[in-house]
Amino acid sequence: MRRNERAAVRDNYAEHPLWLLLQTPARKVEGEMKLFRLSAEELFMETVRILDDIKENPKDASIRMQGLWDEVFCDMRDLDTADAQEEELALAATEVVFAVMFTLSVISDALYTKLTAVLMCQLVERDASDTDHLQKEYAISMIRMGEERLRSFIADYMQSDEWLSSEIEDLLENVPKEEAATRVAESFPAIKIAENKSTSVVVVLSQMYRAGWFVNGDGSKLTNRDAAITAIMRAAFSEEVKNIGQLLNSAKNRTYEGLKYYFKELTKD
What we know:
Blueprint: H1 3-12, H2 17-32, H3 40-56, H4 61-64, H5 68-79, H6 86-105, H7 110-124, H8 128-145, H9 147-157, H10 164-173, H11 198-210, H12 225-237, H13 244-248, H14 256-263
Helix pairs in contact: 2-3, 2-6, 2-8, 3-6, 5-6, 6-7, 6-8, 11-12
């Protein structure tokens, strides 16, 4: 999410019971992540999306929720295959599943009790320390906001005709988009990459991406290396690059010596 989108969600739902529950634990978990960072606003949206899915299709919810952790983990991995460590992606997936499980656990209902058990079984298979840490943080957060307030909201919401996921999507639709970059004058001569140097350029760009030299237009962290490099290659050099991940995983890119192969010409006097 862009910074202004996060601000819109945060400001619009500042007093929402679910936001009040999630925000503090989410900020603490985000602070522990060095590369892949699931913001509190993104966690809020993902939790709402899953709750709405359960709400819309309650009859087969227990079947669909059986693979929720793996589904979320794979979705997170697709967002950033370049730098994020699997431990951080796993923590983010655990955080989402735990948020849904904890929210459902406050309702006295046979279906939600069953779903709570289904989700807990998935968490038990993962890092127990992550779940124990989240349990403590969420318990404190619920005490601060009031357990009865949370229970009343969730119980009413799951029976209502309200769809928070759609509401948030509509909100984000009205958030101003980033201003388009100023176009280079058409008279400026086209610049192309020299023959047999495309791979070298992609490797250089990937290292710049890894170092954090590229950001979104609003200054926020980019989360998709392949999309960023593809956009740069297309905009700067009118060149389409496919299978970036496969290209960067080639043997010469796996070691420092391999990387020097591509950078050696840049060190010439």
